[in-house]
Specification:
Chain A is an alpha/beta fold and about 280 residues long. Chain A contains 12 helices and 13 strands. Chain A is globular. In chain B, helix 2 packs antiparallel against helix 5 and helix 18 runs parallel beside helix 20. The chains are: A alpha/beta (about 280), B alpha+beta (about 800). The interface between A and B is medium-sized, with 13 and 13 residues.
């Protein structure tokens, strides 16, 4: 009897205490990044009882592979990577979509250059173009869609992947690239360095956490509930909970809907990112 | 000496000197310049590379400093602004520190156009002005050479700094200057060495081999045998020497062939029977063996040439168009070369004449040279002469013949001709034999020659037994007549003997003459005169007397042609004259009489054409036509019909055969009566009797025509087993006016009745005659009283 009771208590705990492997954004692996995610994961563990383990991937490609082959249970993904994942596999479950500092769940991408280049579309070359990453929404996809409107084809131009939004900005500022594509919020952050915006996309849904098909709905709900219960932008107590979290997850979240990301998937049908096509 | 001469005398090497010198000088100058420039370029290039690398280092420092600033303060405008100024200051210090020992002059040009030197300058103010001028002309990111300075301007965009790096090139120029002389000397030595090598190569590979080639060719030219050329200084020279060796071998072989060919040609020419000479135009340069056979007095050509320049010296003059002789034909060679006819020449050898056909041909394209070919045709010419003589001479008598006479007559317009014909010579020939006949003809000819020796008459022998005397002298008519008459009389008095000389033969002749008339018609006219004389049984007559005979002849020819045409157009037809039976007073037989229907459709009686038919050999055709048409006409008629036949008809095999075939095929023998005419002249009674027997076997009957005229033979009548006697018309016509005629007719009637032979009276043309005929008991009547001959038997 006791044993059964014990088992009855333990098994759920065991079940409930199964470790989920969490992959943050495939950016620089820094102590700060680790600490920021660990704080969030600790919170979730307290709230849901789920153990989390962090796994790191150098880039989106490997991260997506990891999700597909079960190496990753939950991942922090940008919208394009998630759209790609939707095209490649079924069964993934979007958990929450994070808000930015202004409480916005959507963002835009900007195509920019230095102020000193006037009438660049008419008079000057746009190359080379500094992009973030192949799977970054504000990388090839956004810049290509903006250039399409000006009758240009990015795939025929000289472009380079700087790696991060900041690096892309730096490349342009230093003159190593003529133009670049980054998140609008990043653009604004560096606009004072003498940047000018050449074009902006429509709104994309924000970054989100996604659970692989292996993760049960119950756990997904549990995690979702835990994250959605926080309103740090309006609640001081919640703000204190999240103050040590990463800046991209500390402003609150909303429920993530698959359909919002399917729009991006449709964009990918029109614009082929060469690096992803290989 | 002209330039051309001078140029021709120079060797390849001397010719090469000036161009090589010029090229060398240019080469040295250009080479030095090129090397200097190359050196400059290399030095400058390495310097430029150095400067660029140096600038990249400086730029890297700037970028790194900015990066640090960007990541630390980039997102915060205020912080960034403050940090930037400090960072810039720090950067300048870092750079200045770094550039302390550098050979470069580096400074930063700020957006405000202020200059921040990073290295020390000797004269700050001047350098500043100079620097401003320098970087004003510099191009971003490109190392330029401005006023002996290397200048690189590199823009640092984030801070809008222009990093100017300057380096003085003064040091390099001195290095280059120092090396320049060395370079020049090196190049000059190099060029000299090249020239020397070139000369050596030319000498070894061109000059020396060519000299050997020239020597080799000289030896060939001197016709001496030579060893093969062996040159190996280069592939081309080796090839050249191989070709020269091949060529000289070919030349030797060709010469050998030419010599052999020359000998062969000489042998061929010498084997020719014709004389062949080759002339240069002025003298003979070759003559073959036949030449020396003819001109045996000359041993060789040199001996001939000593005395003669031209073979034409030996051409005899002959006044004939086709003969050449230089006295007349000064351009005789050209004449022969024209080739429009074959020419001949006459040359004498041992006083004997030799005739040659001479032809000439030019030799290739050599002007003036020609080949003469003289072919001996002497034998041929002699043969032709003999033949000509034969053609113009009567073989038997040796007198000129009709052809000679004809040719002679062609030469003249007016002449006189007497044709003499030996009378009855055929009979003499037949009687005494041809040997005597020939003898007589020969002797007669000789006698004529003898008799006319003193006259201007030429004697000719015409065919057979005729001779002609021809003269172109115009004698009075009477003189010719007298001459001819006397000649004939004289010839008549000459005794001729047979071959045994035992029997004397008297020969007479008849002559006809045409006097002083056109030669073209003289023979015909003399012949007409002869025929007239013969016809009139005269010994001599002239053409003028016998014009009638000529018209008769013309008429005969005309009738002969008409008869021929009538046969062609089937206008020879039988007409039928009824024979009236005095007893039954009916017509139960017809005589078939030949008629010629002329072009106008008129019937022409045989009187006009019968003689002509006989003379023109159309008589038998007449008889055949009559027999054929008569049988056809009476095939289905019941009455009898008679056909006239002469002895010659009966003797003719084809007529005989035709009659028998007709009798057999038509099977109307009992209706046929054959009237035999001219029975007084029948010679071969046996033949006639056989004929009668044959036709009678078919049931045919026989009538004797014109009985009573001439000397009719009553015995023949009984022997021939005739069925009818047709009493001659001339008797019947006269029975009323001539007693004798009446008596003869009565006698014939009685005779015939006694033999059982029926009688027919011809040419009864009146009732009175008919009455008398009936009274005489003549069985039948024929004549115009009964009917004229008509085209059809009713």
């Amino acid at each position: 009897m006791k044993r059964s009771l014990f088992l009855l208590l333990v098994i759920p705990l065991v079940l409930f205490s199964q470790t989920l492997r969490f992959a943050p954004l495939p950016m620089l692996k820094s102590e700060l990044t680790i600490r920021q995610y660990e704080n969030a994961l600790h919170y979730l563990h307290e709230k849901t009882g789920i153990e989390f383990e962090m796994v790191y991937f150098a880039n989106y490609d490997k991260l997506l592979e990891g999700i597909e082959n079960g190496q990753v249970d939950i991942a922090h993904l940008g919208p394009l990577p998630y759209a790609k994942l939707l095209m490649r596999t079924e069964g993934t479950k979007p958990i929450v979509q994070f808000l930015n500092a202004r409480g916005e769940s959507r963002y835009t991408c900007s195509y920019f250059t230095l102020k000193r280049y006037q009438d660049i579309f008419k008079k000057q070359s746009l190359e080379p173009v500094a992009l973030t990453q192949p799977l970054s929404t504000c990388g090839f996809l956004s810049v290509a869609s903006i250039l399409q409107k000006h009758g240009r084809k990015l795939e025929k131009m000289h472009y380079r992947y700087s790696g991060t939004h900041s690096q892309a900005v730096l490349d342009v500022v230093l003159g190593d690239a003529k133009t670049g594509g980054v998140k609008t919020s990043v653009y604004y952050g560096y606009e004072h360095l003498g940047l000018q915006e050449l074009g902006r996309t429509h709104e994309f849904p924000g970054f989100l956490w996604v659970a692989s098909a292996n993760v049960s709905d119950r756990k997904v709900d549990s995690i979702r509930r835990a994250l959605l219960s926080l309103d740090p932008l309006h609640n001081e107590q919640d703000a204190r909970v999240v103050q040590e979290w990463g800046s991209n997850i500390k402003h609150g979240a909303i429920k993530a809907e698959k359909k919002n990301y399917e729009i991006i998937a449709k964009m990918l049908e029109d614009i082929t990112i060469p690096e992803l096509a290989r | 000496m002209t330039w051309k001469h001078f140029n021709e005398r120079r060797t390849i090497q001397t010719k090469l000197i000036i161009p090589i010198l010029v090229v060398s000088i240019i080469g040295v100058a250009v080479g030095t310049d090129i090397i200097e420039k190359a050196l400059n370029k290399q030095i400058f290039s390495s310097q430029k590379e150095e400067i660029k690398n140096f600038s990249n280092k400086l730029y890297y420092i700037l970028k790194s400093d900015y990066k640090t600033l960007f990541y630390e303060f980039g997102k915060n405008r205020e912080l960034f602004k403050n940090a930037q100024a400090a960072a810039q200051k720090e950067t300048i210090n870092t750079l200045s520190e770094m550039l302390k020992e550098t050979p470069y002059n580096v400074y930063i040009l700020l957006p405000t156009h202020d200059v921040i030197p990073l290295t020390a300058f000797e004269n700050a103010r001047e350098q500043k002005d100079g620097r401003l001028q320098l970087h004003a002309r510099a191009v971003d990111d490109k190392v330029m050479l401005i006023d002996n300075y290397f200048v690189l301007k590199k823009r640092f965009i984030p801070w809008e700094w222009e990093l100017i790096i300057v380096k003085d090139t003064a040091g390099f120029h001195s290095i280059i200057e120092e090396n320049k002389n060395l370079i020049f000397a090196t190049i000059a030595l190099l060029v000299a060495a090249i020239i020397g090598i070139l000369f050596l190569i030319v000498h070894t590979n061109i000059h020396r081999p060519f000299r050997r080639v020239f020597e080799h060719l000289q030896t060939i030219k001197r016709n001496k045998t030579v060893r093969p050329l062996q040159l190996r200084s280069s592939k081309e020279i080796k090839l050249l020497s191989a070709h020269i060796n091949g060529m000289s071998k070919a030349i030797f072989n060709r010469e050998k062939q030419l010599r052999a060919q020359k000998q062969k040609n000489e042998d061929i020419l010498n084997s020719q029977s014709s004389i062949v000479i080759v002339s240069s135009g002025t003298s003979i340069i070759y003559a073959n063996g036949a030449f020396f056979e003819f001109f045996e007095q000359y041993e060789n050509l040199e001996a001939f040439q000593k005395k003669h320049d031209c073979i034409c010296d030996f051409f005899e003059s002959v006044e004939q168009e086709d003969f050449i002789y230089p006295q007349r034909d000064t351009n005789w060679v050209e004449k022969i070369l024209k080739g429009d006819r074959i020419y001949k020449v006459l040359m004498l050898k041992h006083s004997q004449g030799y005739i040659f056909n001479i032809s000439a041909n030019t030799i290739g394209d050599k002007k003036g040279e020609y080949v003469l070919n003289l072919t001996d045709i002497t034998a041929l010419e002699r043969y032709k002469e003999r033949l000509n003589k034969q053609l113009h001479t009567d073989e038997l008598t040796g007198l000129p013949n009709r052809l000679s006479l004809t040719e002679k007559m062609l030469e003249n317009h007016l002449a006189s001709l007497i044709i003499i014909n030996i009378n009855d010579f055929k009979e003499v020939n037949d009687f005494y034999g041809t040997a005597t006949g020939d003898k007589l003809l020969r002797e007669y000819g000789k006698q004529l020659l003898s008799q006319t020796k003193q006259s201007s008459y030429d004697v000719f022998k015409l065919s057979g037994d005729e001779y002609a005397l021809y003269t172109t002298e115009h004698f009075p008519r009477e003189a010719v007549i007298t001459f001819a008459t006397n000649l004939i009389a004289t010839m008549k008095g000459i005794d001729f003997y047979d071959t045994s000389q035992t029997r004397k033969i008297n020969l007479t002749a008849t002559a006809g003459a045409a006097i002083n008339l056109e030669s073209s018609t003289i023979v015909v006219k003399a012949d007409i005169a002869l025929k007239t004389a013969k016809k009139k049984k005269l010994s001599f007559t002239t053409y003028r007397d016998s014009q009638e005979t000529e018209s008769e002849f013309a008429s005969n020819i005309q009738w002969a042609n008409r008869l021929k045409q009538a046969f062609k157009e089937d206008r020879i037809v039988p007409y039928f004259q009824p024979i009236f039976n005095n007893a039954t007073e009916t017509v139960d037989k017809y005589e078939c009489l030949v008629r010629l229907i002329d072009e106008q459709g008129n019937a022409v009686a045989p009187f006009f054409f019968l003689d002509v038919a006989k003379k023109s050999h159309q008589y038998l055709q007449l008889t055949e036509t009559m027999i054929d048409k008569a049988f056809a006409h009476f095939e289905n008629r019941s009455c009898e019909f008679s056909i006239n036949l002469s002895e010659s008809d009966l003797a003719d095999f084809s007529i005989n055969t035709m009659i028998m075939e007709k009798l057999q095929s038509y099977d109307i023998g009992p209706k046929v009566v054959f009237e035999i005419v001219e029975t007084e002249n029948i010679e071969d009674y046996k033949m006639v009797s056989e004929f009668i027997c044959n036709v009678k076997s078919h049931g045919a009957k026989i009538a004797i025509d014109d009985f009573g005229a001439g000397f009719s033979n009553f015995q023949h009548v009984s022997q021939l087993n005739v069925d009818y006697l047709k009493i001659d018309g001339s008797l019947i016509q006269n029975i009323l006016i001539d007693k004798n005629s009446e008596t003869i007719v009565e006698a014939i009637a009685t005779f015939a009745k006694r033999l059982g032979i029926k009688t027919i009276a011809e040419f009864v043309d009146s009732e009175e005659v008919q009455q008398r005929v009936k009274e005489m008991g003549i069985d039948y009547t024929q004549g115009y009283l009964i009917s004229k001959p008509k085209p059809s038997a009713h």
